[in-house]
Amino acid sequence: MKDISKATIDRLPLYLRALRMSQDEGLDVISSEELGRRLEITPEQIRKDLASFGQFGKKGVGYYVNELKHSISNILGLDNHWNIAIIGIGHLGSALANYHNFISLGFNLVALFDHDSSIVGKTVNHVKVTDIDVLEQTIKDLNIHIGIITVPGQFAQEVANRLVKSKIKGIWNFAPIRMKVPDDMHIVNEDLSIGLSCLSYHITRKPR
Amino acid sequence: MKDISKATIDRLPLYLRALRMSQDEGLDVISSEELGRRLEITPEQIRKDLASFGQFGKKGVGYYVNELKHSISNILGLDNHWNIAIIGIGHLGSALANYHNFISLGFNLVALFDHDSSIVGKTVNHVKVTDIDVLEQTIKDLNIHIGIITVPGQFAQEVANRLVKSKIKGIWNFAPIRMKVPDDMHIVNEDLSIGLSCLSYHITRKPR
């Protein structure tokens, strides 16, 4: 497989999201024009992105929604049904634990961790909160692939270090810090203010 | 100003984030190469994106961190200090109300709304939760520019309709539905599973 740009990869989940919504609306077939209209991405870009991964859709017809949905799920590796854990069960951790899209995309929420004894032992979305003291052993026992860091910034690096030592496959980080991890660790840094900043741009520049 | 692509606009908040972190680390100047390394974006792309908005940086030196940070804030319209409100004060709404990055970017959190009488009247991050019954009047009284929707999916469209009627400038939607709003309303749909899906792609495809 040739080298795929980060921008293309970042758009795949958007395509998947739009396809899932189209299916919910009862659509069987969708054109790159209609997909593009829904996502504010040009049809040319969509066709080019998808062509990086193979031949999809039928000229003059469009993409078969269910088929393309499964193909993109497969490309994204969602059929691996990764085991995920959330570390830090404050408001954000609790919100993510209750986020149904993760489940519907095929992720398994298998563990929640916190250090606060008033939270440990509680149940969020059918998963019991475990003491962070046993993080490493639990990751091993439950075969956890992905760690989601939602602890306050000052504790995030330490949690990341422990996840790295536990040979986790990837980290999804919500803490607003520049995390130091080894080059061979996959990490995605999330910043909740990005969407709000984009909205600010639009309402500033283009009063509709 | 020429027409700027959505992809370029979406990258501006990433540049701003990286510049803010660089400044926290004490950097005065940063090259497009170093910025690119931190963001996994090519230096050519960064130079091209920024050139859409004017002349920044000095050849052979790099970008002055503080100057570029202020320029991008300005381009994003963050110096408008938009008044924001969150509608739906469950875990996600509470997490966003406590998210310090919004404040540090210049947004003013001025109101929180919920319909649950056990939540109305409580205080989250110094802001009292208001009954959603007085949504329209409060938007007018407090001059609220942006509404953040964090209610469950089945209530989201109704909330959006009320925001539209209240002549809000923009909507940031976390509900996992395809929202119907007039063409002249700016809306950014957030999907928290996008980052996790990208991480899945990376750990599936490129074992480091």
Chart the SSEs and their pairings.
The structure is a homodimer of 208-residue chains.
Chain A lengths: L5 H19 L4 E2 L1 H8 L3 H9 L11 E2 H11 L7 E5 L3 H7 L2 H5 L3 E7 L8 E2 L2 E5 L3 H7 L4 E4 L3 H13 L4 E4 L12 E4 L3 H13 L3
Parallel strand pairs in A: 3-4, 3-7, 4-6, 7-8, 8-9
Antiparallel strand pairs in A: 1-2, 5-6
Helix pairs in contact in A: 1-4, 2-3
Structure description:
The structure is a homodimer of 208-residue chains. With 208 residues, chain A is α/β, with parallel strands linked by helices. The first copy, chain A, has two domains: 6-78, Arc Repressor Mutant, subunit A; 81-193, Rossmann fold (3-Layer(aba) Sandwich). Helices cover 44% and strands 17% of the residues of chain A. The first copy, chain A, is built from nine helices and nine strands. In chain A, the strands form two sheets. In chain A, strands 5-6-4-3-7-8-9 form a seven-stranded mixed beta sheet, with helices on both faces. Chain A has a two-stranded antiparallel sheet with strand order 1-2. In chain A, helix 8 (153-165) links the parallel strand 7 and strand 8. In chain A, helix 1 (6-24) packs antiparallel against helix 4 (65-75). The longest helix of chain A is centred in the N-terminal third of the chain and has 19 residues, at 6-24. The relative contact order of chain A is 0.09. The mean pLDDT of chain A is 93. At the A-B interface, helix 1, helix 5, helix 6, strand 8 and strand 9 of A face helix 1, helix 5, helix 6, strand 8 and strand 9 of B.
